[in-house]
């Protein structure tokens, strides 16, 4: 059960190795990537762990790709965000998959 206010990566820390979390806190990753990892950890923890097992480079590459897709879609739809359309609705309208497959 999730209780209290969660900080970015709190959910992902329950699934991924500390070294992986440390790598995500560095480099080209930002808050968008942290939200993606938390979403993946919450909705598909076994798949996320399996992706990590394939190698940190594989996981981080996939995360960077997803971060770029989501960031660009949300940037393009920034006016919609100010009008109250949620991030998840914008990503769905842009046909961007948000879950691990």
Protein described:
This protein has helices at about 20-25, 30-45, 45-55, 55-75, 80, 85-95. The protein has a domain at about 75-100. Helix content is about 60%, strand content about 0%. The mean pLDDT is about 95. Helix 2 (about 30-45) crosses helix 3. It is globular and about 40 Å long. The longest helix has 21 residues, at about 55-75. The chain has 6 helices and no strands. It is an all-alpha fold and about 100 residues long.
Topology, element by element:
Layout: H1 18-24, H2 31-43, H3 45-53, H4 56-76, H5 78-82, H6 87-93
Helix pairs in contact: 2-3, 2-4, 3-4
Record keyword descriptors for this entry.
6 helices; 101 residues; mainly alpha; globular
- Give the N-to-C terminal Cα separation: 24 Å
Class computed from helices, strands and strand pairing: mainly alpha
**How many alpha or pi helices?**
6
- Residue-averaged pLDDT: 94
* Topology as a string of helices (H) and strands (E): HHHHHH
Major sheet size, sense and barrel closure: none
| Percent range of helical residues | 55-70%
Low-confidence stretches: none
Shape category? globular
Query: What's the assembly state of these chains?
Result: single chain
Cα Rg = 14 Å
Strand elements, count:
0
- How much of the polypeptide forms β-strand, as a percent range? under 5%
